[in-house]
C-alpha cells in the first residue's frame, strides 16, 4: 500500500503539531486524517476506527500513550510514534516501531509513512 488515499489516525495533544501533521500527511497523499487530542477519545478511535496507519504522540498531556499503541497493534494497525524524546526514551517493548523525533521534517515523515505502509 502507498500513502495515496491512506486513512490515518493522528493522536496528538498539541494543536499546532496536530495541524502540521495533518497538513503534511495530506501533502504526502493521505486521504482521510482524523486528529484526536485526548487519551480517552484516542483509545476509542483505536478500538473502533478503520485506519491504515496511526501517528501517535508518546505523551498525551502527561499520560503515557502505550495502552493506545497496544490496542492499535492488537488490531494490526501499523503506527509511528512521535516524541520529543526520540527513540532513546522509548520503552524497549516498542523498539521495532518507527519513531519520529520532534521537531521533524516533512521528508522524515514521508519516508516513515511510505516505509510503514509498504509493509501493510
Uncertain parts: none
* Morphology: globular
Number of helices, counting only DSSP H or I runs of 4 residues or more: 4
Distance between the termini: 6 Å
| SS strand fraction | 15-25%
Q: What is the topology, as strand order, of the major beta sheet? A: 2-1-3-6-7
Rg over CA atoms, rounded to whole Å, is 13 Å
Q: What series of H and E elements makes up the topology?
A: EHEHEEEHEEH
- Largest sheet, strands/sense/barrel: 5 strands, parallel
Helix content: 25-40%
- Class inferred from helices and paired strands: alpha/beta
Topology, number of strands: 7
How much is the average pLDDT? Answer: 94
Question: Please, could you describe this protein's structure?
Answer:
The chain is α/β, with parallel strands linked by helices and 120 residues long. Helix content is 38%, strand content 22%. It contains four helices and seven strands; from the N terminus they run βαβαβββαββα. The protein has a five-stranded parallel beta sheet with strand order 2-1-3-6-7, with helices on both faces. It has a two-stranded antiparallel sheet with strand order 4-5. A hairpin with a 2-residue loop joins β4 (59-60) and β5. The model has no long low-confidence stretch (mean pLDDT 94).
Amino acid at each position: 500500500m502507498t500513502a495515496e488515499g491512506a486513512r490515518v489516525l493522528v493522536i496528538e495533544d498539541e494543536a499546532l503539531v496536530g495541524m502540521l501533521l495533518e497538513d503534511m500527511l495530506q501533502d504526502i497523499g493521505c486521504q482521510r486524517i482524523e486528529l484526536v487530542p485526548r487519551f480517552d477519545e484516542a483509545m476509542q478511535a483505536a478500538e473502533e476506527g478503520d485506519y491504515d496507519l496511526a501517528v501517535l504522540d508518546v505523551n498525551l498531556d502527561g499520560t503515557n500513550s502505550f495502552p493506545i499503541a497496544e490496542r492499535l497493534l492488537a488490531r494490526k494497525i501499523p503506527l509511528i510514534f512521535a516524541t520529543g524524546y526520540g527513540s532513546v526514551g522509548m520503552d524497549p517493548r516498542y523498539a521495532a516501531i518507527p519513531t519520529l523525533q520532534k521537531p521533524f521534517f516533512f521528508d522524515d515523515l514521508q519516508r516513515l509513512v511510505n516505509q510503514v505502509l509498504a509493509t501493510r
